[in-house]
Design goal:
The protein has 628 residues and is of the alpha/beta class. 58% of the residues lie in helices and 6% in strands. It folds into 2 domains: 355 residues, no CATH class; 231 residues, SGNH hydrolase (Rossmann fold, 3-Layer(aba) Sandwich), CATH 3.40.50.
Length: 628
């Protein structure tokens, strides 16, 4: 983000530029905390443009004044301004997540913190890896640090490039670079995987370079007036109408928005007594702009901590509470951390790097210590006598013709990642031979256009082969009981016949019925007793306003479970139905813990302890009874 100070660098302070910061950070805060400003994410682009303009102006002013640019002094100022507050945020977030965000993957949070500390968070977001659970998890508590990474990379590289580019060609070089960056973004644009285009340093450099071009070649006052009027209108319309997945943004739209912001900045600078500058220099906006770095740093982790579930608030009340807390914390950060270090800390040249390295090492140690990678506890389980059977008696699967030899009842779990977590965390059970054929990220629905957590997605590569993978597993393991658990992917909005639809609607129910019947037939093809587990209620992530995304709505889960029962009843050989939802959500609603035991890890998947101490002791006897 653009938080360059300029009062101490020979560049005249302009209150209106703090106003630009304020507008940018307010847009981001509202975008992340409400649903009525869909283009608020463009506040980050406003920061980028302002950063390019300010940093280039500062460096050019220094070169004009001294005939050179003192690189170590520049980087030292940047470190004093930006690093201390970031270190505090990283420590508080990591420690706070340990207690307040138990659903956050410890390994993912560790790498997110370390990438933020090394200012490469944007590339971490692109190539985050970490397996299916991390790749499909809600946004990390440190995801917002991606923009800080781009900024710091700019601070590191741009002064060096500036020294190499002749002054008379600087504006032209900046414009050419911005166009090239926009072209790269357009080439890398993928409507179902936006990460590379959105987070890349090369693709987002266009906004920074637009700001650099403005600093290299200021606009005449009348041109700036026209650019300011047009730019302000374009930016406001984009804030109100743009969507993060809109194709036009990636095909020149981001460049247009950057140019619009540059127009506003140009007018504010060229006409300090003009309407634009006077509005942006309002005391309230200037104050918000001055604490904008803290607001940006703190808002996202605080939003993750202050959830609707934890606060009991939603909508405007939740937004107001989050903003109040964020403003209070950011103000304290500004007064107690940022300003004292920036203004009063003047360390000898060799002490600052040593202090910086020591502080970063300390934060690294905290990150490693506070984010242990959880193991999978496992203890043997003894089968107890089962209760009443869950389905009509049939011929014993263990005595079916053609069964592969084996004395123990064989149970195989089919389904998606929820079934995978159930089967993988299953304890050692002397009376059962358990195998897992569930595929992470793959349900039985194959329609390619999906809405997940409010954004467009498609099926994970290879999911279209689920029938063959299920069939191969059935032949390999030859289960006596085939357990099917499907949850997330069947509950999302998908486009069918050109229309967005979901479970509970007739056309989509008909599609799911065909897919489910196929799955049941494959799983039971060798004579296995098929068991359908009802899907438990979920709470994977909250919308910005505190509400649930459609796929987490209890009505979706109820509609899916009703479909399971209807399909089972209509089959010639009805599968057994076991109500896992009632076991995992005994009060008829989503719950994280039961009797003090945490059973859900991230609002969707099961914890190892939850499977081994709550689900398996209840489910295993029923599966053993169905096998015999």
């Amino acid at each position: 983000m653009s938080f360059a100070g300029h009062a101490d660098s020979g560049y005249a302070y302009r209150p209106a530029l703090d106003g630009v910061r304020a507008v940018a950070v307010i847009a981001v805060l509202l975008f992340h905390g409400a649903a009525f400003l869909p283009g608020g994410f463009l506040g980050v682009d406003a920061f980028f443009v302002l950063s390019g303009f300010l940093i280039t102006s500062l460096l050019l002013a220094e070169r004009d004044r001294h005939g050179r640019i003192r690189l170590t002094a520049f980087w030292g100022r940047r470190a004093r301004r930006l690093l201390p507050a970031l270190l505090v945020v990283l420590v508080v977030t990591v420690v706070g997540a340990h207690y307040l965000l138990p659903e956050e993957s410890p390994l993912r949070l560790r790498w997110d913190a370390l990438s933020a500390l090394s200012y490469v968070a944007n590339w971490r977001m692109i190539y985050q890896g970490g397996g299916y659970f991390d790749q499909t998890a809600p946004a990390s508590a440190l995801q917002h640090t991606w923009s800080l990474g781009i900024e710091e990379q700019f601070y590191l590289l741009w002064p060096l490039l500036l020294l190499a580019i002749p002054r008379r060609f600087l504006a032209l070089a900046c414009c050419a670079g911005a166009l090239a960056s926009a072209a790269v973004m357009a080439l890398l644009y993928d409507p179902v995987d936006l990460d590379r285009a959105y987070f890349g340093t090369d693709t987002r450099a266009q906004a920074l370079l637009v700001g650099c071009a403005l600093a290299a070649r200021p606009l005449a006052r009348w041109v700036a007036a026209v650019a300011g009027a047009l730019g302000g209108g374009v930016f406001l319309v984009a804030l109100a109408r743009a969507g993060g997945s809109d194709a036009w943004l990636y095909r020149g739209g981001f460049l247009l928005v950057a140019a619009a912001v540059a127009g506003v900045i140009a007018h504010a600078v060229a006409s300090p007594r003009g309407l634009t500058a006077r509005f942006l220099a309002l005391p309230a906006l200037v104050w918000v702009g001055q604490i904008s770095y803290g607001l940006y740093l703190w808002h996202w982790p605080l939003y993750q901590f202050l959830t609707a579930e934890r606060t009991g608030m939603s909508g405007f009340n939740l937004l107001a509470f989050r903003l109040a807390v964020t403003i209070a914390v950011a103000t304290a950060s500004y007064q107690l951390i940022e300003q004292p270090i920036r203004r009063r800390l003047r360390l000898p040249r060799l002490v600052l790097p040593a202090a910086t390295v020591t502080a970063m090492a300390g934060v690294t140690a905290v990150v490693v210590v506070m984010t242990p990678v959880q193991g999978l506890p496992s203890s043997p389980m003894v089968l107890k006598a089962p209760g009443a059977s869950t389905a009509p008696a049939q011929t014993s699967p263990m005595r079916r013709p053609g069964r592969k030899p084996g004395k123990l009842p064989r149970v195989t779990f089919f389904g998606d990642s929820v079934a995978w977590s159930l089967g993988t965390y299953w304890p050692r059970t002397p009376g059962l031979d358990v195998s897992v054929a569930a595929v992470q990220g793959c349900g039985i629905a194959l329609l390619p256009e999906i809405k997940q957590l409010g954004t467009l997605h498609t099926n994970i590569e290879g999911c279209e082969r689920w029938p063959g993978r299920w069939r191969a597993a059935a032949n390999k393991y030859d289960p006596d009981v085939a357990v099917i658990l499907l949850d997330r992917w069947e509950l999302m909005d998908r486009k069918l016949n050109g229309r967005w639809t979901h479970v509970g609607e007739p056309d989509y129910n008909a599609y799911l019925t065909r897919q489910l019947r196929q799955g049941i037939e494959i799983a039971g093809a060798r004579g296995a007793r098929v068991v359908l587990l009802t899907a438990p209620y979920t709470h994977r992530s909250e919308r910005p306003d505190g509400g649930l995304y459609p796929e987490d709505q209890p009505s979706r889960v109820d509609a899916w479970n009703a479909l399971l029962r209807k399909v089972a009843a209509d089959m010639p050989k009805p599968p057994a139905i076991i109500d896992l939802n009632k076991r995992v959500c005994p009060d008829g609603k989503f719950t994280w813990s039961i009797q003090g035991l945490r059973v859900r890890s991230d609002g969707l998947h099961f914890t190892p302890a939850g499977v081994q101490r709550w689900i398996a002791p209840w489910l295993a006897p029923q599966l053993a009874a169905l096998a015999r």
